[in-house]
Amino acid sequence: MTRDELKTYLDSNYSDKIRPLDTGRYDLIYEINAENLFSFAKAIAEDENLKFDYICNIGGSDTGENLEAVYSVASVSKKLRLDFKVILPYENPEIESVQKVWKGANWHEREMWELFGINIKNHNDLKCFLLPEDWNQGHPMRKDWDAPDFVRFPEL
Amino acid sequence: MGLIKKVPVYSEKIPGGGIICTSLEQVLHFGQAKSLWYLLFGTACCAIELMCTGASRYDFDRLGMMFRATPRQSDLIIAAGTITKKMAPRLRKLYDQMAEPRYVIAMGGCTIKGGPFYYDCYSVEKGIDHIVPVDIYIPGCPPRPESLLEGCLKLQDKIQKQKLSDWQEK
Protein backbone atom coordinates (compact mmCIF):
# COMPACT_ATOMS: atom_id res chain seq x y z
CA MET A 1 0.00 0.00 0.00
CA THR A 2 1.47 3.33 -1.01
CA ARG A 3 1.09 6.61 0.81
CA ASP A 4 -1.80 7.72 -1.41
CA GLU A 5 -3.56 4.37 -1.13
CA LEU A 6 -3.25 4.57 2.64
CA LYS A 7 -4.77 8.04 2.56
CA THR A 8 -7.68 6.86 0.48
CA TYR A 9 -8.18 3.84 2.70
CA LEU A 10 -8.17 5.86 5.91
CA ASP A 11 -10.44 8.54 4.48
CA SER A 12 -13.01 5.99 3.39
CA ASN A 13 -12.93 3.78 6.49
CA TYR A 14 -12.17 6.07 9.42
CA SER A 15 -13.47 9.45 8.28
CA ASP A 16 -15.83 9.68 11.28
CA LYS A 17 -12.89 9.77 13.71
CA ILE A 18 -10.05 11.57 11.95
CA ARG A 19 -9.51 14.77 10.00
CA PRO A 20 -6.58 14.97 7.54
CA LEU A 21 -3.99 17.73 7.93
CA ASP A 22 -1.88 18.87 5.02
CA THR A 23 1.75 17.82 5.34
CA GLY A 24 3.04 18.03 1.78
CA ARG A 25 5.19 15.04 0.94
CA TYR A 26 5.90 13.76 4.45
CA ASP A 27 4.10 11.03 6.39
CA LEU A 28 0.35 11.39 6.57
CA ILE A 29 -0.86 13.27 9.60
CA TYR A 30 -4.36 13.31 11.01
CA GLU A 31 -6.05 15.13 13.81
CA ILE A 32 -8.15 13.13 16.21
CA ASN A 33 -10.32 13.93 19.20
CA ALA A 34 -9.15 12.78 22.64
CA GLU A 35 -12.24 10.61 23.20
CA ASN A 36 -11.71 8.70 19.93
CA LEU A 37 -8.01 8.09 20.51
CA PHE A 38 -8.13 4.69 22.13
CA SER A 39 -10.78 3.19 19.86
CA PHE A 40 -8.96 4.47 16.77
CA ALA A 41 -5.64 3.09 17.99
CA LYS A 42 -7.22 -0.29 18.67
CA ALA A 43 -8.93 -0.29 15.30
CA ILE A 44 -5.84 0.45 13.19
CA ALA A 45 -3.78 -2.05 15.17
CA GLU A 46 -6.30 -4.79 14.54
CA ASP A 47 -7.26 -3.85 10.97
CA GLU A 48 -6.13 -6.68 8.67
CA ASN A 49 -5.17 -4.27 5.89
CA LEU A 50 -3.12 -1.93 8.11
CA LYS A 51 -1.74 -3.90 11.09
CA PHE A 52 -0.12 -0.91 12.78
CA ASP A 53 1.86 -2.96 15.29
CA TYR A 54 4.67 -0.62 16.27
CA ILE A 55 4.67 2.71 18.11
CA CYS A 56 7.66 4.75 16.95
CA ASN A 57 7.18 7.74 19.17
CA ILE A 58 4.75 9.74 21.22
CA GLY A 59 5.73 13.36 21.44
CA GLY A 60 4.26 16.38 23.09
CA SER A 61 4.39 19.95 21.92
CA ASP A 62 3.36 23.33 23.19
CA THR A 63 2.39 25.49 20.23
CA GLY A 64 1.70 28.59 22.31
CA GLU A 65 -2.06 28.23 21.70
CA ASN A 66 -2.64 24.71 22.91
CA LEU A 67 -0.92 21.46 23.73
CA GLU A 68 -0.52 18.60 21.31
CA ALA A 69 0.20 14.92 21.72
CA VAL A 70 1.64 13.51 18.52
CA TYR A 71 1.66 9.78 17.85
CA SER A 72 3.82 8.14 15.22
CA VAL A 73 2.98 4.57 14.41
CA ALA A 74 4.28 2.13 11.86
CA SER A 75 3.35 -1.20 10.43
CA VAL A 76 6.30 -3.52 10.11
CA SER A 77 4.54 -6.18 8.06
CA LYS A 78 2.69 -3.79 5.71
CA LYS A 79 5.50 -1.20 5.55
CA LEU A 80 3.32 1.79 6.46
CA ARG A 81 3.80 4.89 8.53
CA LEU A 82 1.20 7.19 9.99
CA ASP A 83 1.11 10.16 12.36
CA PHE A 84 -1.86 11.45 14.24
CA LYS A 85 -2.22 14.11 16.86
CA VAL A 86 -4.57 15.13 19.61
CA ILE A 87 -5.02 18.82 20.30
CA LEU A 88 -5.56 19.53 23.98
CA PRO A 89 -6.39 22.62 26.04
CA TYR A 90 -4.05 24.02 28.70
CA GLU A 91 -6.56 23.38 31.48
CA ASN A 92 -6.79 19.72 32.49
CA PRO A 93 -5.40 18.11 29.33
CA GLU A 94 -6.23 14.43 29.50
CA ILE A 95 -5.87 11.49 27.13
CA GLU A 96 -6.43 7.79 27.31
CA SER A 97 -3.41 5.52 27.57
CA VAL A 98 -2.74 3.40 24.48
CA GLN A 99 -0.66 0.91 26.44
CA LYS A 100 -3.21 -1.84 25.91
CA VAL A 101 -2.66 -1.51 22.16
CA TRP A 102 1.09 -0.84 22.06
CA LYS A 103 3.05 -1.74 25.20
CA GLY A 104 5.92 0.52 24.21
CA ALA A 105 3.73 3.53 24.83
CA ASN A 106 4.33 3.22 28.57
CA TRP A 107 7.57 5.21 28.81
CA HIS A 108 6.55 7.75 26.17
CA GLU A 109 3.39 8.51 28.09
CA ARG A 110 5.27 8.89 31.37
CA GLU A 111 7.64 11.34 29.69
CA MET A 112 4.78 13.33 28.21
CA TRP A 113 3.02 13.38 31.55
CA GLU A 114 5.96 14.83 33.47
CA LEU A 115 7.25 17.27 30.85
CA PHE A 116 3.94 18.64 29.52
CA GLY A 117 1.52 17.87 32.33
CA ILE A 118 -0.80 15.90 30.06
CA ASN A 119 -2.67 13.52 32.31
CA ILE A 120 -2.82 9.91 31.13
CA LYS A 121 -5.91 7.92 32.02
CA ASN A 122 -5.55 4.19 32.80
CA HIS A 123 -1.75 4.28 32.95
CA ASN A 124 -0.45 1.58 35.27
CA ASP A 125 2.78 3.22 36.43
CA LEU A 126 2.55 7.00 36.26
CA LYS A 127 5.67 8.38 37.97
CA CYS A 128 8.64 10.55 37.03
CA PHE A 129 10.68 9.13 34.19
CA LEU A 130 13.49 11.52 33.24
CA LEU A 131 13.09 14.13 35.95
CA PRO A 132 14.30 13.52 39.51
CA GLU A 133 11.99 11.34 41.61
CA ASP A 134 11.09 14.19 43.97
CA TRP A 135 10.47 16.79 41.25
CA ASN A 136 7.91 19.39 42.29
CA GLN A 137 8.56 22.32 39.97
CA GLY A 138 5.89 21.76 37.36
CA HIS A 139 6.21 20.82 33.71
CA PRO A 140 9.43 22.18 32.20
CA MET A 141 8.58 21.78 28.51
CA ARG A 142 5.65 24.19 28.70
CA LYS A 143 6.42 27.58 27.27
CA ASP A 144 5.28 29.50 30.35
CA TRP A 145 7.32 27.34 32.72
CA ASP A 146 9.62 29.06 35.20
CA ALA A 147 11.68 28.08 38.23
CA PRO A 148 13.88 29.97 40.71
CA ASP A 149 17.18 28.82 39.15
CA PHE A 150 15.97 28.88 35.55
CA VAL A 151 17.84 31.49 33.50
CA ARG A 152 16.44 32.62 30.17
CA PHE A 153 18.81 33.50 27.37
CA PRO A 154 19.12 37.30 27.40
CA GLU A 155 17.73 39.38 24.53
CA LEU A 156 20.54 40.37 22.20
CA MET B 1 68.15 7.08 47.48
CA GLY B 2 66.07 8.68 44.80
CA LEU B 3 63.54 9.52 47.45
CA ILE B 4 65.87 11.96 49.21
CA LYS B 5 66.18 14.06 46.11
CA LYS B 6 62.43 14.17 45.75
CA VAL B 7 61.38 14.82 49.35
CA PRO B 8 62.33 18.44 49.64
CA VAL B 9 63.85 20.78 52.22
CA TYR B 10 63.58 18.97 55.55
CA SER B 11 64.95 15.56 54.65
CA GLU B 12 68.52 14.87 55.46
CA LYS B 13 70.74 11.88 54.83
CA ILE B 14 72.54 10.51 57.85
CA PRO B 15 76.00 9.37 56.77
CA GLY B 16 76.81 5.72 57.16
CA GLY B 17 73.28 4.32 57.32
CA GLY B 18 70.21 3.89 55.17
CA ILE B 19 68.32 6.36 57.31
CA ILE B 20 66.78 9.68 56.49
CA CYS B 21 65.36 12.32 58.78
CA THR B 22 62.17 14.03 57.78
CA SER B 23 58.82 14.92 59.21
CA LEU B 24 55.77 12.71 59.16
CA GLU B 25 53.85 15.49 57.46
CA GLN B 26 56.28 15.57 54.54
CA VAL B 27 56.36 11.85 53.95
CA LEU B 28 52.64 11.36 54.39
CA HIS B 29 51.66 14.12 52.02
CA PHE B 30 54.35 13.12 49.54
CA GLY B 31 52.91 9.65 49.44
CA GLN B 32 49.37 10.92 49.17
CA ALA B 33 50.10 13.33 46.37
CA LYS B 34 51.97 10.81 44.27
CA SER B 35 49.34 8.12 44.38
CA LEU B 36 46.04 9.81 43.74
CA TRP B 37 43.62 7.12 42.72
CA TYR B 38 40.65 8.61 41.00
CA LEU B 39 37.09 7.41 40.70
CA LEU B 40 35.81 6.52 37.26
CA PHE B 41 33.11 9.12 37.02
CA GLY B 42 32.54 10.32 33.50
CA THR B 43 29.07 11.65 32.80
CA ALA B 44 29.52 13.38 29.44
CA CYS B 45 32.01 14.35 26.75
CA CYS B 46 34.73 15.41 29.25
CA ALA B 47 35.05 11.72 30.01
CA ILE B 48 36.42 11.21 26.49
CA GLU B 49 39.26 13.63 27.28
CA LEU B 50 39.73 11.91 30.62
CA MET B 51 40.09 8.57 28.82
CA CYS B 52 42.51 10.14 26.38
CA THR B 53 44.57 11.48 29.29
CA GLY B 54 44.59 8.03 30.81
CA ALA B 55 45.73 6.38 27.58
CA SER B 56 49.28 5.99 26.36
CA ARG B 57 49.91 9.35 24.68
CA TYR B 58 49.37 11.45 27.80
CA ASP B 59 49.80 8.63 30.29
CA PHE B 60 48.13 9.57 33.55
CA ASP B 61 49.81 6.66 35.30
CA ARG B 62 53.15 8.44 35.46
CA LEU B 63 51.62 10.83 38.01
CA GLY B 64 50.60 7.82 40.06
CA MET B 65 46.99 8.27 39.04
CA MET B 66 45.16 5.01 38.65
CA PHE B 67 41.47 4.71 38.03
CA ARG B 68 39.34 2.78 40.47
CA ALA B 69 35.83 1.59 39.85
CA THR B 70 34.69 2.03 43.43
CA PRO B 71 34.62 5.15 45.62
CA ARG B 72 35.90 3.16 48.59
CA GLN B 73 39.33 2.80 47.02
CA SER B 74 39.54 6.32 45.59
CA ASP B 75 41.09 9.53 46.84
CA LEU B 76 39.78 11.79 44.13
CA ILE B 77 36.69 12.34 42.05
CA ILE B 78 37.32 13.88 38.65
CA ALA B 79 33.79 15.07 37.87
CA ALA B 80 34.10 14.82 34.10
CA GLY B 81 30.92 16.00 32.43
CA THR B 82 27.54 17.55 32.91
CA ILE B 83 25.94 16.88 36.27
CA THR B 84 22.18 16.90 35.95
CA LYS B 85 19.83 17.53 38.82
CA LYS B 86 19.00 13.86 38.84
CA MET B 87 22.68 12.91 39.02
CA ALA B 88 23.53 15.39 41.80
CA PRO B 89 22.38 13.22 44.75
CA ARG B 90 24.29 10.29 43.27
CA LEU B 91 27.46 12.36 43.07
CA ARG B 92 27.02 13.35 46.70
CA LYS B 93 26.49 9.72 47.66
CA LEU B 94 29.69 8.66 45.91
CA TYR B 95 31.58 11.47 47.59
CA ASP B 96 30.24 10.43 50.98
CA GLN B 97 31.37 6.86 50.40
CA MET B 98 35.00 7.86 49.90
CA ALA B 99 37.44 7.66 52.78
CA GLU B 100 39.06 10.88 53.91
CA PRO B 101 41.19 12.65 52.84
CA ARG B 102 39.25 13.09 49.62
CA TYR B 103 39.49 15.60 46.82
CA VAL B 104 37.33 16.78 43.95
CA ILE B 105 38.37 18.13 40.57
CA ALA B 106 35.63 19.91 38.61
CA MET B 107 36.51 19.28 34.99
CA GLY B 108 34.93 21.37 32.24
CA GLY B 109 32.50 24.24 32.02
CA CYS B 110 29.40 22.22 32.96
CA THR B 111 30.71 21.30 36.39
CA ILE B 112 31.90 24.84 37.08
CA LYS B 113 28.77 26.84 36.27
CA GLY B 114 26.55 24.80 33.97
CA GLY B 115 28.62 25.61 30.88
CA PRO B 116 26.60 25.59 27.64
CA PHE B 117 23.54 24.51 29.64
CA TYR B 118 23.46 27.66 31.77
CA TYR B 119 20.67 29.34 29.80
CA ASP B 120 17.25 27.87 29.00
CA CYS B 121 17.87 24.59 30.74
CA TYR B 122 15.77 22.95 33.41
CA SER B 123 17.78 19.82 34.04
CA VAL B 124 21.42 20.75 34.59
CA GLU B 125 22.93 21.63 37.96
CA LYS B 126 24.60 25.02 37.71
CA GLY B 127 27.96 24.16 39.24
CA ILE B 128 28.83 21.15 41.39
CA ASP B 129 30.32 23.28 44.15
CA HIS B 130 26.99 23.39 45.95
CA ILE B 131 26.88 19.59 46.01
CA VAL B 132 30.46 18.70 46.96
CA PRO B 133 33.45 20.88 47.96
CA VAL B 134 35.70 21.39 44.94
CA ASP B 135 39.49 21.68 45.15
CA ILE B 136 40.49 22.37 41.56
CA TYR B 137 38.47 23.87 38.70
CA ILE B 138 39.58 23.11 35.15
CA PRO B 139 37.82 25.29 32.57
CA GLY B 140 37.32 24.25 28.95
CA CYS B 141 34.66 22.58 26.87
CA PRO B 142 36.08 20.02 27.16
CA PRO B 143 39.55 20.83 28.55
CA ARG B 144 42.50 19.39 26.66
CA PRO B 145 44.46 16.59 28.33
CA GLU B 146 47.27 19.08 29.04
CA SER B 147 44.84 21.17 31.09
CA LEU B 148 43.75 18.13 33.04
CA LEU B 149 47.37 17.16 33.73
CA GLU B 150 48.08 20.71 34.85
CA GLY B 151 45.07 20.60 37.16
CA CYS B 152 46.26 17.34 38.67
CA LEU B 153 49.75 18.77 39.24
CA LYS B 154 48.13 21.75 40.95
CA LEU B 155 46.21 19.37 43.18
CA GLN B 156 49.44 17.54 44.03
CA ASP B 157 51.01 20.86 45.03
CA LYS B 158 48.01 21.63 47.15
CA ILE B 159 48.20 18.28 48.92
CA GLN B 160 51.93 18.62 49.58
CA LYS B 161 51.39 22.02 51.16
CA GLN B 162 48.85 20.65 53.61
CA LYS B 163 49.44 20.53 57.34
CA LEU B 164 48.47 17.58 59.49
CA SER B 165 46.31 19.92 61.52
CA ASP B 166 44.23 20.66 58.42
CA TRP B 167 42.88 17.14 58.49
CA GLN B 168 40.68 17.70 61.46
CA GLU B 169 38.99 20.68 59.95
CA LYS B 170 38.02 19.12 56.63
Query: How helical, in percent, are the residues of chain B?
Result: 25-40%
The chain-level mean pLDDT of chain A equals 90
Average pLDDT across residues of chain B? 86
How would you characterize the largest beta sheet of chain A?
5 strands, mixed
CATH fold assignment of chain B: Rossmann fold
Q: What is the strand content of chain B?
A: 5-15%
Shape, per Cα inertia axes of chain B: elongated
Provide the spatial order of strands within the biggest beta sheet of chain A.
Answer: 1-2-5-4-3
Largest interface: A-B, 13 and 10 residues
CATH fold-level topology of the domain at 3-91 in chain A = Beta Polymerase, domain 2
Please mark out the parts of chain A with pLDDT under 50 across 5 or more consecutive residues, or reply none.
Answer: none
Order of helices and strands of chain A: HEEHEEEEHE
Oligomer: heterodimer
H/E element sequence of chain B: HEEHEHEEHEHEHH
Give a brief outline of the structure:
The complex is a heterodimer of chains A (156) and B (170). With 156 residues, chain A is α/β, with parallel strands linked by helices.
Write the topology of this structure.
The complex is a heterodimer of chains A (156) and B (170).
Chain A: H1 3-13, E1 18-21, E2 29-32, H2 37-46, E3 54-62, E4 67-75, E5 80-88, E6 94-96, H3 105-116, E7 119-121
Parallel strand pairs in A: 2-5, 6-7
Antiparallel strand pairs in A: 1-2, 3-4, 4-5
Chain B: H1 2-6, E1 12-13, E2 20-21, H2 24-33, E3 37-39, H3 46-54, E4 66-68, E5 76-80, H4 88-97, E6 103-107, H5 109-113, E7 136-138, H6 145-160, H7 166-169
Parallel strand pairs in B: 3-4, 3-5, 5-6, 6-7
Antiparallel strand pairs in B: 1-2
Give a structural overview:
The complex is a heterodimer of chains A (156) and B (170). Chain A is α/β, with parallel strands linked by helices. Chain A has a domain at 3-91: 2-Layer Sandwich (Beta Polymerase, domain 2), CATH 3.30.460.80. Chain A has three helices and seven strands; from the N terminus they run αββαββββαβ. Chain A has helices at residues 3-13, 37-46, 105-116, and strands spanning 18-21, 29-32, 54-62, 67-75, 80-88, 94-96, 119-121. In chain A, strands 1-2-5-4-3 form a five-stranded mixed β-sheet. Chain A has a two-stranded parallel sheet with strand order 6-7. The longest helix of chain A is centred in the last third of the chain and has 12 residues, at 105-116. The N and C termini of chain A lie far apart (50 Å). The mean pLDDT of chain A is 90. The mean pLDDT of chain B is 86. Chain B contains seven helices and seven strands. In chain B, helix 3 crosses helix 6. In chain B, the strands form two sheets. Chain B has a five-stranded parallel β-sheet with strand order 4-3-5-6-7. Chain B has a two-stranded antiparallel ribbon with strand order 1-2. Chain B has one domain: Rossmann fold (3-Layer(aba) Sandwich). By secondary structure, chain B is an alpha/beta fold. In chain B, strand 1 (12-13) and strand 2 (20-21) form a beta hairpin. Chain B starts with a helix and ends with a helix. Chain B is elongated and about 70 Å long. The interface between A and B is small, with 13 and 10 residues.
